[in-house]
Design goal:
435 residues; transmembrane; Glcn_transporter; 77% helix; mainly alpha; GntP family permease
């Protein structure tokens, strides 16, 4: 009966978001209260359980996500993202322009949250389309496939970052495995798949024709790449140290490798290298940081709401019951987690909400099976990207920016996102054989 109550709670969440058009944070809160009542949680304990769940999941995550948003904002405002894209297109040349756009989306997408990266980089696609006379969809899909991959698989993006502590995974290993999964996934769903889309006619509206910064206003190539990739370098470096240096478990190394400290260091370096050293006023930099916090406030609230619902499941004991029930299903836990995330993604639209909700359901599997927790994060990430359609804001952003019909949006955007999810889980399963 308890598992039926969980199913009803998930259905209520779906209806509140899709039919009632409720804000996801409010939908999570309402669903948490209803779920707690159905699961016979003492009514006087419900508020404290919700508070515990919200605080427990956010915790240090708030610092990481906020610092990441500030970092990404500076990458954008300083012109570093523009310099990276110019350099990669110059390196790859016209023949491999789609690969240049893919790597642009990947590198710039690591520090930028998805919607910010989308709005920032789509004008670049149109600029290339105007210059080369190549179809805009053919050029855009590789870049957006890379953005989706970073959003679903790589910290410090909200969903993978939030799932790491829930599963007891290691942020550094998750990042390393995520990079391994990301490369073949974005290559197949990006430049290779894009070759089938050359016949889709797209006429981007003139509003999106970009006004680029002048060359002398951009940071240097080295500065742009080194600063943008600094969080990845620090996390991957401190993760690799125990394998190459005997005495690498010192307190200092552990301190430097902490995700919060990594983002603090990266932001401090970026503030100097991309900001102050290039004559940006400190007041302007701080204003940009404030704007960045506003941009991700909704994401933090969604994560908090997901934490509340998860805590209701844990406190009521249904979480353990779900774990026992899922164990009885003769299916690889990674595939099962991917399927659950896929179903919720199709119903709700939001990749972040799908990932966090699925995590709350399958978390007991990590404790009761020998599944690799780092790969579980990636499996759910892959499922959360599946089958984007009319209930996903990204679907409508792509359709509107590229001025496409619904049919062509399904043929390009929806199929690309589905390929990312399918290739992603296949890559995770292959990786599972070796780690």
């Amino acid at each position: 009966m308890a598992i039926v109550s969980v199913g009803i709670a998930i259905l209520i969440l779906i209806l509140l978001v899709t039919w009632a058009k409720l804000n996801p944070f409010l939908a999570f809160l309402v669903t948490s209260v209803i779920a707690a009542i159905m699961l016979d949680v003492p009514i006087e304990a419900i508020p404290s359980i919700i508070e515990k769940g919200m605080g427990g999941l956010l915790g240090a995550l708030t610092v990481i996500i906020c610092l990441g948003a500030m970092f990404g904002k500076l990458i954008s405002e300083s012109g570093a993202a523009q310099q990276i894209s110019r350099s990669l297109m110059s390196l790859f040349g016209d023949k491999y322009i789609t690969w240049a756009l893919m790597f642009t989306g990947f590198i710039v997408g690591i520090p930028l949250f998805y919607n910010v990266g989308f709005v920032l980089l789509i004008p670049l696609v149109f600029s290339v389309a105007y210059q080369t006379k190549l179809p805009a969809v053919y050029l855009g899909i590789p870049l957006l496939a890379a953005l989706s991959v970073t959003h679903g698989f790589l910290p410090p993006h909200p969903s993978p970052t939030a799932l790491v502590p829930q599963f007891g995974a290691d942020l550094g290993l998750t990042l390393v495995y995520g990079l391994i999964v990301a490369l073949p996934t974005m290559a197949l769903a990006g430049p290779i798949f894009a070759k089938t889309l050359k016949n889709i006619d797209s006429q981007p509206i003139d509003t999106f024709k970009p006004a680029d910064l002048k060359d002398e206003e951009l940071p240097s190539v080295f500065n742009s790449f080194a600063t943008s990739l600094l969080p990845v370098i620090l996390i991957a470096g401190t993760t690799a140290l125990p394998y190459v240096v005997a005495d690498s478990n010192s307190a200092f190394i552990q301190f430097i490798g902490n995700p919060m400290v990594v983002m603090m260091i990266a932001l401090a370096v970026a503030t100097v290298t991309l900001g102050l050293s290039r004559k940006m006023q400190i007041t302007k930099i701080m204003d940009d940081y404030s704007d960045a916090i506003k941009d991700i406030a909704v994401i933090l609230l969604v994560i908090a709401g997901a934490g509340a619902l998860k805590q209701v499941f844990v406190t009521s004991g249904v979480s353990s019951e779900i774990g026992d029930a899922l164990q009885s299903i003769d299916l690889n836990p990674l595939i099962l987690a991917w399927l659950i995330a896929t179903i919720i993604r199709i119903c709700l639209g939001s990749a972040t909400v799908a990932g966090l909700t699925a995590a709350g359901i399958v978390a007991p599997l990590v404790l009761t099976t020998d599944v690799n927790p780092n790969l579980m994060v990636l499996a759910i990430g892959a499922g959360s990207l599946m089958c984007s359609h009319v209930n996903d804001s990204g679907f409508w952003m792509f359709k509107g920016y590229f001025n496409l019909s619904l049919k062509d949006t399904f043929k390009s955007w929806t199929l690309m996102e589905t390929m990312v999810g399918v290739i992603g889980i296949i890559s995770v399963l292959i990786l599972d054989q070796f780690v």
